[in-house]
Amino acid sequence: MHLDPTFALTLRAAFVLLFVGALIHKLHKFAEFKGTLASYFRGFGLSGMALERPAAAMAIALEAVVVAACLSPRSGTPAAVSASGVLLLYALAMAVNLHRGNVLLDCGCSWGSERQPVRYALVLRNAVLAALALTLALPVSDRPLAALDVASTGAAILTAGLLYSAANRLLMTATPSRRMTL
User: Which of 2, 35, 43, 140 has the fewest CB atoms in 10 Å of its CB?
Assistant: First the structure.
């Protein structure tokens, strides 16, 4: 199975934009990001004070690696593994914290001034994105790109960005359902 080059380019560009946005947010709000990481470490039973600066630097470095891999047209498997790995790492951190009852934790993924509480829907979102990222490891067909392909790619990237933003906004504002008791 080979990916169509238009789909592969769209997917790579979408992940580049996702991780560049995350990088900009982390660098712009570095102090807040370190505080969010410290909260995550408490969910693992660790004191975050000594770990937050190196962990923040590592998260930024990992996301930069994802961007570099996705920008390189010949790095299908490294792009797939790095993007998927980072997304699954974040999903695992959220799941562990939820499991341990650290439910008031901000996910750190809203890119704005609003806080987004961690919930299992975000864990699922990251798992779906990680699975999608794995398709970057598939070989891309040798079909040359035409002008229509370039226009389609631009429209698809815009659409994907709008859908991601809308879905993220819904996840941010939705209240978790309560269990019905009999």
Answer: 2
Q: For residue 63, what are the contacts with CB-CB under 8 A and spacing of at least 6?
A: 19, 22, 23, 26, 86
pTM for the structure as a whole: 0.87
Distance CA 179, CA 176 (A): 10
CA gap 37, 53 in Å, rounded: 9
Helix (H, G, I), strand (E, B) or coil at 117: strand
Alpha helices, DSSP H, located in 72-146: 76-99, 120-134
Tokens matching residue 87: 């997304």
- Nearest one of 35, 27, 112 to 63, comparing CA atoms: 27
Residue-wise pLDDT tens digits, 49-104: 678 889 899 999 999 999 999 998 888 899 999 999 999 999 998 998 898 887 76
Chain mean position to CA 23: 11
Residue 110 has pLDDT above 70, yes or no: no
Beta bridge pairs of residue 3: 140
Could you say which DSSP state residue 118 is in?
-
